[in-house]
Design goal:
Layout lengths: L10 E2 L3 E4 L2 E6 L2 E6 L4 H8 L7 H16 L5 H13 L2 H8 L6 H12 L5 H13 L13 H11 L3 H14 L7 H21 L6 H21 L1 H11 L6 H12 L7 H4 L2 H4 L10 H10 L8 H6 L30 E5 L2 E5 L1 H7 L4
Antiparallel strand pairs: 1-2, 2-3, 3-4, 5-6
């Protein structure tokens, strides 16, 4: 804050002090004062200490950044935070960005969209978006009406980097129950994404490593359950039309048919209609967890339906539960290993899994 003499009064802490329009750090060379602009330069200097191992210092930096965020009118502070995450993958930035409130979400979504459209920052931007939506901030529903959603879908329909595709489809799977009303406008985009990734996981046009295909197939499998659980009438209609084509029959036999064998008949296939599924009013009484539970209730896969079993464990049922089916996908051992590779066994075959690739593919899962 400004003192009566027109100078800057520093707020001092243990080895650290912050001013409203600047900051000062106690280093080995003594007190170093930075005179900075109100937004760009000061936030850049503050970010240097954001991930400090000194808890008190890091806490004071977060408080200073939050103060600047609350006064940020042009989005410069938000932009600096996003750029810092793209360079550092800072968990502190995720915490700061997930705590913002409306209307500051607008410049954040614009910056994420800009970063997603730059090939060099696309993977990091998707990872950041995944971290943010998992925290379910109160502004998450605005994504359905922002340019960010079309950019995400375009990435899934055109990008050729398999790790980007894996990360992007996990973002979409997580996001769908939070923006169910987006189905009215983007339902065929969702289906196009599914069709492309299903074909990719079967044909492997990029000749990517097997471990990446396993992760991609896991993403396609989860997307199948999400789309079937939320939009069964439209999704079954799409599957019937798309996989009746001769060029898609192999993908249907190897990828889609096994997935269909792991779901129950959806009640909406009997009582619902394609139009009603896409009516935004259908979702007014649903919270995010309600939609996730509804999706899990039509699954015969014990892994996919575990959410339902946890929530409804106290409910009694006179009808016997179907016996558990073997998982459609092999399980990955994600425990630390001293070896440079891990072995994955499925149906008598062995796959060599590179832990670094595993980590990249499941970056925010």
């Amino acid at each position: 804050m400004l003192d009566p003499g027109g100078g800057v009064r520093l707020l001092r802490g243990a080895g650290f002090c912050v001013a409203q329009y600047g900051c000062a750090l106690h280093g080995s060379t003594g007190l170093k004062v930075f005179t900075m602009s109100r937004e760009q330069v000061s936030i850049s200097e503050l970010l240097l200490s954001l991930d400090s191992s000194e808890l008190q210092e890091a806490e004071q930096v977060r408080a200073a950044v939050n103060q600047q965020l609350s006064a940020d009118r042009g989005g410069a502070v938000l932009s600096s935070l996003v750029e810092y995450y793209l360079d550092s993958s800072s968990s502190q930035v995720v915490l700061l960005l997930s705590s913002i409130r409306e209307p500051h979400h607008k410049p954040l979504l614009e910056k994420l969209n800009e970063s997603l459209n730059r090939p060099g920052s696309r993977l990091a931007a998707l990872t950041l978006l995944g971290h943010l939506i998992r925290k379910q901030p109160p502004w998450v529903h605005h994504i359905s009406r922002s340019a960010l959603l079309p950019s995400l879908l375009r990435c899934l329909k055109t990008d050729s980097d398999v790790v980007v595709l894996i990360t992007a489809v996990l973002v979409l799977i997580t996001l769908l129950p939070m923006i169910p009303q987006a189905g009215k406008q983007h339902i065929y985009d969702f289906f196009d994404v599914f069709g492309r990734l299903a074909s990719w996981s079967y044909r492997n046009p990029g000749h990517v490593p097997v471990v990446h295909l396993v992760h991609l197939h896991a993403g396609v499998y989860s997307l199948f359950h999400r789309l079937y659980g939320m939009f069964p009438c439209n999704f079954i209609s799409y599957l019937r039309l798309h996989y009746s084509m001769k060029e898609n029959l192999d993908t249907f036999q190897e990828i889609i048919k096994p997935m269909l064998e792991h779901v129950r008949v959806h009640p909406e296939l009997v009582t619902g209609t394609q139009d009603y599924e896409l009516d935004p009013s259908r979702w007014r009484c649903y919270e995010v967890h309600d939609i996730v539970i509804e999706c899990s209730r039509v699954s015969l896969d014990p892994l996919e339906s575990s959410c339902e079993e946890d929530v409804y464990s106290s409910s009694s049922s006179s009808s016997p539960r179907p016996p558990p089916l073997p998982s459609l996908l092999p399980l990955l051992d994600l425990s630390p290993s001293p070896h440079s590779s891990e072995t994955l066994s499925s149906s008598g075959s062995e796959l060599t899994v590179d832990p670094s690739a595993q980590s990249a593919a499941l970056r925010y899962v």
